[in-house]
Amino acid sequence: MRVHHGWHGCHWLYVLNGRLQMILGDQDFVLGAGEVAEFDTHLPHWFGNADAGAVEFLSILGPHGERVHIKASYRPG
């Protein structure tokens, strides 16, 4: 399991395809395509394939709460 010492931030994961097993501290999760996770980088964590199939995911590290987070939907026209 990993932690990111010396840098206080947030880790975001988005599963594109497959199934991702993610261990955060003492909790074990399995995420499928379209599911997301957000956690503090100081929390011990590990992730990998949840089964024999391939998993594809997007991983982003960034600062905690220093910018506004906007969710927008597409509006035609």
Indicate the mean pLDDT.
Answer: 80
Helix fraction by DSSP (H/I, runs of at least 4): under 10%
Biggest β-sheet strands, sense, barrel:
3 strands, antiparallel
Structural class: mainly beta
Q: What is the first-to-last residue Cα distance? A: 47 Å
- Report low-confidence residues grouped into runs of 5 or more: none
Radius of gyration from CA coordinates: 14 Å
Spatially, the strands of the biggest sheet line up as 4-1-6
Number of strands: 6
Q: Tally the helices: what do you get?
A: 0
Proportion of beta-strand residues? over 45%
The shape is flat
- The arrangement of helices and strands along the chain is EEEEEE
Structure description:
With 77 residues, the chain is an all-beta fold. It has strands at 9-17, 19-24, 27-32, 36-40, 45-49, 56-63. The strands form 2 sheets. The protein has a 3-stranded antiparallel beta sheet, with no helix packed on it. A 3-stranded antiparallel beta sheet has the order 3-2-5, with no helix packed on it. Strand 2 (19-24) and strand 3 form a beta hairpin. The termini are far apart.
Annotation keywords:
77 residues, mainly beta, 6 strands, 51% strand
Question: How is the topology of this model organized?
Answer:
Blueprint: E1 9-17, E2 19-24, E3 27-32, E4 36-40, E5 45-49, E6 56-63
Antiparallel strand pairs: 1-4, 1-6, 2-3, 2-5
